[in-house]
C-alpha cells in the first residue's frame, strides 16, 4: 500500500509501504518494484508511513506505530512511533516515543529534522548530529482542538504549512510560532465529535474517513510547485484529483529541485 514517497536523482522513487508487510521500496523508471529495506535494528518494519530522501542522500523513515492494528494507537496516551535513518553507516532507529509519527523532513538549513506526530498533536524537531544521529527532541508547536497533523512543507519566509486530516484544514505556522488557518474546509459537527473521541481515547478510523466529504477529501499532504514555487498542491486520502491554489509566499526548493 504506497504512502509517502521521494524522488531520487536517477528518476526512480522511494515508496513507503503502509501495508502490514511494511518496508521501503524503490519504484524504478521501468515500473518495476524492488525492496530497499524491511528490517532495522533486528525489527521487521511494520506499516511504514514515509520515506524522505534529503540533500545528503540520507533516507529518513517514519513508522507511526509498532502495533499491527494501527487503530489501537489512535490514542493520545500512546507514543510507540519512531524515526529510522538509512545512510552510509547503515540503518538504525534514531528517535522513538513519538505519538503516531507522520511526515518527516529535513529543514532548509539542513540542521534539523522536523516530524509531525498526529496523536501527539505536535510539530517536533530534532537536531541532526554530524554522524546522522538525532539530538533531544524539541516541540516547535502544539496544535489545538480539531487538528490532526499529517503532512507539512516549509516556505521561503521560514514558515511551516501543515495539513490536518478529518478537519480538512491547512495551517501556516510563522517563524514566531503564530498559527494561521489558511483553509478550513471541515465539518464542524464532525470536528466536535472527533474532539470528544480524542479526549476520551475512543478516536477511530471511521471518524477520519468521514472527512472524505469535504471538498479537500481529507487533505493529508501539500507541496509547493510551479516555476515560482507559489502554487500549493494538496494531496488527499480520498480524492482522485489534486487541488491547488496560489500562495503569496513561495515554498523552499525541495531536495529534488535540481536533479
Automatic annotation (TrEMBL):
Database matches in SUPFAM superfamilies: Calcium-dependent phosphotriesterase
Pfam families attached to this UniProt entry: SGL
All copies of domain SMP-30/Gluconolactonase/LRE-like region, residue ranges: 4-180
GO molecular function, one term: hydrolase activity
Keywords: Hydrolase
Protein name: SMP-30/Gluconolactonase/LRE-like region domain-containing protein
Species for this entry: marine metagenome
Amino acid at each position: 500500500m504506497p504512502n509517502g514517497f521521494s524522488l531520487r536523482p536517477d528518476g526512480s522513487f522511494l515508496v513507503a509501504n503502509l501495508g502490514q508487510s511494511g518496508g521501503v521500496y524503490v519504484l524504478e523508471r521501468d515500473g518495476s518494484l524492488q525492496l530497499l529495506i524491511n528490517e532495522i535494528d533486528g525489527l521487521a518494519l511494520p506499516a511504514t508511513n514515509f520515506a524522505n530522501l534529503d540533500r545528503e542522500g540520507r533516507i529518513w523513515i517514519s513508522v507511526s506505530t509498532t502495533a499491527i492494528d494501527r487503530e489501537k494507537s489512535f490514542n493520545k496516551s500512546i507514543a510507540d512511533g519512531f524515526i529510522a535513518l538509512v545512510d552510509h553507516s547503515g540503518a538504525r532507529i534514531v528517535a522513538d516515543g513519538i505519538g503516531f509519527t507522520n511526515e518527516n523532513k529535513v529543514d532548509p538549513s539542513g540542521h534539523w529534522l522536523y516530524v509531525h506526530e498526529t496523536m501527539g498533536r505536535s510539530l517536533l524537531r530534532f537536531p541532526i548530529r554530524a554522524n546522522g544521529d538525532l539530538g533531544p527532541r524539541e516541540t516547535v508547536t502544539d496544535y489545538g482542538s480539531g487538528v490532526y497533523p499529517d503532512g507539512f512543507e516549509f516556505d521561503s519566509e521560514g514558515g511551516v504549512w501543515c495539513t490536518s486530516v478529518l478537519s480538512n484544514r491547512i495551517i501556516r505556522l510563522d517563524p514566531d510560532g503564530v498559527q494561521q488557518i489558511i483553509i478550513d474546509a471541515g465539518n464542524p459537527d464532525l470536528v466536535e465529535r472527533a474532539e470528544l473521541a480524542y479526549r476520551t481515547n475512543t478516536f477511530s478510523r471511521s471518524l477520519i474517513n468521514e472527512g472524505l466529504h469535504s471538498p479537500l477529501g481529507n487533505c493529508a499532504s501539500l507541496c509547493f510547485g510551479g516555476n515560482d514555487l507559489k502554487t500549493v498542491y494538496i494531496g488527499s486520502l480520498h480524492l482522485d484529483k489534486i487541488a491547488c491554489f496560489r500562495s503569496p509566499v513561495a515554498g523552499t526548493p525541495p531536495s529534488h529541485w535540481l536533479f
